[in-house]
Write the structure tokens for this entry.
Amino acid sequence: MGDTQDFEEYALARQHWLYRTAVLLCGDPYRAQDLTQTTLVKLLQHWGKAARADSVDAYARTVLTRTFLAEQRRGLLGRRLHAVEDNPTSSGDPALRVTLFAALRSLPPRARAMVVLRYWEDLSIEHVAASLGCSPGTVKSQCSRALAMLRERLKADERITAEC
């Protein structure tokens, strides 16, 4: 019973964080809900191992990221072409959020995962590499390329907006 209760407490405390990261990874709030639920199910199935990990959050983040990448590879979920709906509880410029989400969605899934983990979750290069099962050099090069792609995309969006 204690293991299940520990998992329930963890899930309640961290589900919002997992969901936020999932939205950044997939760019779709509905798919992010499914991704979060799948991650929590996998965590429950392996809770004994997860609870013994040095960091349960790092374990959960790895499960979330790998689940996202596996779904991308298998193409289980159809791509939604509509824009991300605004979150009424978030602050800031909604147009900027939509632009940033669109730019993130333009990245390949693995590069998007690296950018989200490295810059949004503020993980070290080594942690990102461990989470994704690649070398630190791969993380550095992929993040560099992804940031260059984001800069180009955002410059293009800025030019389009200025012309209108």
